[in-house]
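Milestone M4 deliverable, item 7.
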Amino acid sequence: MQNNKFFRYIIFIIGLILFLDGFILILFKKWHLGTILPLLIGLIFIISTLNHQRIQQFLAQHLKLKKFWQWGWRLFSIWLISLLAFFGYIHIKAQQNNLTDHVQTIIVLGSGITQGKASPTLARRLDKAGEIAKQQPQSLIIVSGGLGFGESKTEAEIMAQYLQDRDQIQASRILQENKSTSTELNLKNSQAILKAQQLGLDAKIAIVTSDFHTLRAGAIAKKQGYDNFVTVGAETPITTRYNAWLREYFAYLSGWVLGEY
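Output delivered:
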């Protein structure tokens, strides 16, 4: 009995953290699966622990619903294990550095702009790309991202200016792919730029994205025919890290179902 009570306390605390995390980010207008889902899960945890006795009394009188309730928690446990395994993979992948010398091109995948500036996540990607570009001055840089809703400049334009201002990268080294709105299009549209530079898909390419995104980006690149690339993951800002990882979990599953890789 005491153990059950302790378990409910833990579930309540986890639920409160998830709810507040999602609620605060939604207040900052970050509406996506990575914020809505934690809020809903947290709310379910809070309600179920605060009303534990009533729920158990109700289920005791409705045995079919009790079995459904029990199976629901079992399935949730299996889902949670798969989610933690995915998070573990991302964490391990983020610690690895597979970058090789003599990279011919650095492709930086877009991640959104806000009021004409790179989002914190995009800024981390650009910082990583700038770091590589300084180490390997022979490489070209393709910045990839189209025109966002309500913006006057494309994401690629903002990215190029960021690299010039912060890292003093010469404009002649930066090539802009400014029509894409997804990872798939980022990589697909970049192929025309590579071809114009007389580079094939067998060229040594570093695809720079966020740590949580390397798995899916690599899978999409491989399907499109890139066969000599490495994915380089930039650290995700702590304020949005686990929400982004959660959203990516579902994005990876949906991409697999839709045959993106």
